[in-house]
Amino acid sequence: MAETSTGAAQPIKEIADVVHDAGAMLIVDAVTSLGGMPVEVDEWGIDAIYSGSQKCLSCPPGLAPVSFSEAAVKVILNRKTKVRSWYLDVSMLANYWGSDRAYHHTAPINMTYGLYEACRLILEEGQGSCFARHTQNHHALKAGLAAIGMEYTAAEGHQLPMLNAVRIPDGVNDGEVRSALLNEFGIEIGGGLGAFKGQVWRIGLMGYGARQANVLLLLSALEQLLAKQGYKFDSGASIAAANAVYAIA
Length: 249
Prior knowledge:
By secondary structure, the chain is mainly α. The chain folds into 2 domains: 2-125, Aspartate Aminotransferase, domain 2 (3-Layer(aba) Sandwich), CATH 3.40.640.10; 127-248, Aspartate Aminotransferase, domain 1, CATH 3.90.1150. The protein is 42% helix and 10% strand. It has a 3-stranded mixed beta sheet. A hairpin with an 8-residue loop joins strand 7 and strand 8. Helix 4 packs across helix 5 (127-147) and helix 7 (212-228) runs antiparallel to helix 8 (237-248). The protein is elongated, with a radius of gyration of 21 Å. The chain starts with a strand and ends with a helix.
């Protein structure tokens, strides 16, 4: 539901309606979105959904939370043709997690406790407050980038709060800026994927990393590096614009 190459949010409820009207089932990738924006599994009619522990949940990578609707479980357990995969066979996993407790794997207990703590921290903050924090920092970053003439790839109203995909200004060297961000400021941002390679920067504001200090540090670093590239803008404009957003909150 959060397309990370373009930074676009997908209208899952509307997609689910189309999919179900066609007699099919909907599977959703929520690796980036879970913990950073609402994910209404039952309300939106999602049949199968999976995520990862490492992004907006701010937990070590390695776990993939999943959920299946009753309809999806029925289809899975009543398949006539089965391609056996010990690692990925959902029916075998169901026997492990269900009442039978049939052995399937040794559970990663430490990681499970890590995920539990990550979820506890989100609930302690409050889901609404957590989502609002991601949105506020996204708006501050967006305002700062706009102040120095940088635009987002996704259309207005469909931009992700936790993955900000922005167009690289003409004449600016993608690799040089990203390398300098990492080596001089300890900041890593993603490059464009596929057709967007060399044209887009993907800036993550995920989980604990979605903080005012991180937004302002990135904007300050970008201004310094863009100036070295000969890109013209009003010095300090990005910081002023971002701080104006924080002042309103």
